[in-house]
Write a structure and sequence with these properties.
The chain is mostly helical and about 110 residues long. The protein has helices at about 1-30, 40-45, 50-60, 65-75, 80-95.
Amino acid sequence: MIRFLFRLLAMIALSVAAIMAVLDATRSIAASALVTTPLGESWAETLPDLLMLAEQNVRHYIHPLAWDPVALFVLGLPGFAVFGALALLFYAIGRRPERRAGRFAIQA
């Protein structure tokens, strides 16, 4: 059940990464130059109140240094790269382990 949850999260993150990559590709074609949208900019355009709430919660409950250098660095990365890395991480956690042959089994 937990593996299924992580694979589902991986699929959702990969879908968001693909959507963000298509948006960046469309903007790049229109501008005739490479255009990548940072995750923070996309988040601020879609849900600005949630971004401010996340900042307040990270500063209050975790540590102010967790927001300034760490979260702002992640928010400055292209959105498709962040969600692509999340998809890879969730998939790696949720994948099924390989079956190993016995210790003395013959491997073909």
